[in-house]
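Sample entry (438 residues):
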Amino acid sequence: MKISDLILTANRNLLRNKVRTFLTILAIFVGSFTIILNTAINAGVNDFIDKQVSTIGGDGFIEVMPAAASEQIMTMMKTGEKVTEYNEKTGSMMSAVISDEDFEAMKKVDGVKKLEVFHVLSVEWMRLYGAEKKYNVNVEYFPAESMNVDLSAGRMTDDTVEDEYEIIINEDWLKPFNLGSAEEALGKTVEIGAKQTLKCYTAPNDCISIVEAKIVGVQAPGVLTMDGDLHINKALDAKLYELINEGVPEEQLSTIFAVGEVEPNKVEDVRKTFKELGSGYEIITVKDTAGMIRTFFDVILAVFNIFGVIALIAAAIGIINTLFMSVQERTREIGLDKALGMSRLKIFFSFSIEAISLGFWGSIFGMFVSMLIGYSANNILHAEGQFLSPFPTFDLVKFSPEVVVPIVLLIMFIAFVAGTAPALKAAKKDPIDALRYE
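Predicted structure, serialized as C-alpha cells:
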C-alpha cells in the first residue's frame, strides 16, 4: 500500500465517528488558534519596533545617567515599588550627578565621538503665536546629527545655527493649534513660557520669559517617541536653560544627564568603562529602549501562549483517547489486514497518520480562523479614531510562512507522538486473537 493510499484511508477512517473526530479536532484548533494568533501578534509588534528603530537610527546614540538614578528608575518600572533601599555607594537619585571630572573622563573614553550635557528643562507652557490658549508642554534637546525622528512633514532641527530657535512638534498638537495638516504647521511660530527660578522668589507674578520658536517639522506617531517630549534645537535649549537658571551661581548647577554619540561597534565597551568611572554610570541606547518595549509585550503574550499549550496538552490526551477507541473498535479489521499480509509497520503508520491528520486539520483550521480574525482586526483597528489609526505602518497581527508553518508542523509532531501508543498497540495485535475478537 502506497503512502498516498495510507493517507486517504486514514482520513476516511476518521469519518467513521464524526462527532468524536470533530471534538478532537476542535481541541487542537483551540490550542493552535491561540498560539498562532499570539505568535502573529508578537511578529507584528516586533516588526513595527524594528521599523521604528531603523527609522530613528542612532545606533551610536547614548543617554548617560548616574547608576543611582538608573537603578531607582528601573526598580520602580519593574516592581512598581515607590520605596527603595538606600545605597551608600551611589546615594539617592536626587543627589546623583555627573561630576565635572567624570564628564571630562567620559569624553576621552575610546569610542566616544561626542558627549554633551543634557539639560532638564521645566518650561511652563506653549501656545501658537497670537493665540491666547496655553498648553502644558515638555521640551528636550537631542543632537539632530545623532538621531533621526520619523517625520510626517518638515525636517530635522538645525543645531549649527546660534540665533534661530527651532522646534519639532508631534501630530497631537495639530488639533489644539487648529491646524488642518502637518504641512500647515511648518513655518508657524510658537511661544514658550519659561519660569525664571530666582526671579520668581521676588516677583512671583512677573517671572515668566517668553521665547519664540519656529516649527520646522512634525513628528509622526510611533512607539519610540522619547516619552512624547518635543524636540528643540541646540540654540533653543541653551536659551531656555539660560532663562530658567538666570542668576543661579554656576557652582549650584549640576549635570544630571548627558547625551552623546559613540562608535556603534564600541557601545558595549563604552558601557563597561562608564560603569567603572566614579560611582558608576549607566548608558541607554535606542536598542535598549526598544528591548524594554519588546519585553513588555513578550510577557503578556507568554501568558496567553500558556493557555494555548494547556489546550494542546488536552488535545493530545483527546488524540490518545480517540485512537485507543478506534483500535478497540477495529480489532477484527486489524486482524484481517494482518492475515492478508499487511505488516506491523504499515499498521503502525496507518494509525500514526490518523493522529497526524487530526493535528493537521486542527492546526489548519486554527491557522485560517486566526488569519481571518487577525486581518479583520488590523483593518478595524486602523479605521479612523481607532487604536491603531495614528500608526499606519503598525500591523498588530503579522502572518508569514516562517511564523505559521513551524507551528503547524510542531502540532502535527505532537499529534504523532500522542498517537504512538495506540498505533503500537494496533501493530502488536495477534491476527488470530484479533479475528476472534467480538
